[in-house]
């Protein structure tokens, strides 16, 4: 398990603000937090070096790209052996429909978040890319009606 980084209230305020708007300028961020811009820049750099801030992401609306249907696929891999799961994981990650992949405990081994054009495209994906693979024992599909972001991520109180 990764070690936690000790963060003070200024660090937490910076993280809260950047998670709500990662494009905020250092000058605006510093003014909001109540520190000098150079101090703010140093703190953000330290948060990056320590691995607290992992990077920046561009969010895209899948529906605007012709992928208006989202689903979660629960997948069982049998036998669940390292020599089978490595190639399986790499194959799923390479699929243009895959948004995220989780390795789980419990009856399902993986949960895959996918975006597709429609139900026919989802059926094609499940049949051609998942159930056709010899290591895939079962796939259960759940459609996503709506998704909300929660946030920001901060350490436990």
From TrEMBL:
Pfam families: AsnC_trans_reg, HTH_AsnC-type
Highest taxon above the source species: Bacteria
Protein name, entry field: AsnC family transcriptional regulator
Gene3D superfamilies according to UniProt: 3.30.70.920, Winged helix-like DNA-binding domain superfamily/Winged helix DNA-binding domain
Keywords: DNA-binding, Transcription, Transcription regulation
Boundaries of every HTH asnC-type domain copy: 7-68
PROSITE patterns: HTH_ASNC_2
InterPro entries to which the protein is assigned, alphabetical: ArsR-like_HTH (IPR011991), AsnC-type_HTH_dom (IPR000485), Dimeric_a/b-barrel (IPR011008), Tscrpt_reg_AsnC-like (IPR019888), Tscrpt_reg_AsnC/Lrp_C (IPR019887), WH-like_DNA-bd_sf (IPR036388), WH_DNA-bd_sf (IPR036390)
